[in-house]
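Morning!

This is the sequence you dropped in the shared folder:
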Amino acid sequence: MRKNQVQAFLSTQWPHVAELARLHGVTKVSYDASAATLAGTVNEGPEPAPRESVLGLRNPLDGALAAERLACGEMPNLHRLMEQQVQRAGDEYAKTRGREFPWEGFADAILPWVLDDAATLKLSSFAAEAATLNELQLLRRLPDDSWRFRHERIRDQFVVHAFLGKNAQRQYTLASERRVLAIYRILPEKLYNKQTQVPRDSVDTVYEWLAAQSAASDAFLPAFRYFYLGMADIGLHPQEVHAHGSPSDATAG
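The structure's back. Tokens below.
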């Protein structure tokens, strides 16, 4: 979306977020002013910057999430819309439940449903978590008491936690599984985060392994591509993370 499209879209979202805005003391005048400010940050060049081409306000879902943040009196981070929304869910859960959101356990519970390509999932063991996500419009409850994520991109922000910590081996064992390829777009920032000082060695290791597998089999090329885009998102370049050259070098031959 370009500046004029962003502002126009956010304006059309007001009826959908008016009640949320009322609860947070945000008026339409304030909402429109913030929307104009946000639209002014969108790149208007002939070609979007590499980071903006894979992040930011790319589609109506991003715009809707941005509108919800504005209605809460917050300025959305265009490069962290999904992450910002999911983190808010974690904060809200901790505030109302008095404990941290069980990221790993929740991810382990939904991963089998993702691998089975299921349209809906059951969350009987995570009723409190599902309720919080439902309140924040990240998860939708269906008449048969099953659940569906608002969007696969939101779901993936939770599923990625099933690839970390004691389950890090899944980064390798599921690298060719098409149903979780999008995880490799999110994984780099979880492995390497400047704020938490997570060692970059783990990022390098997965990157090198995916590169080797990509050279050997076309089945791994999508995972490699997603992972490399993730590298670009956090400002890392092939020269920094690949001792043997660029991604094209790694996949040549």
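Headline: Residues 86-158 form a domain with the Arc Repressor Mutant, subunit A fold (CATH 1.10.10).

More detail when I'm at my desk.
O.
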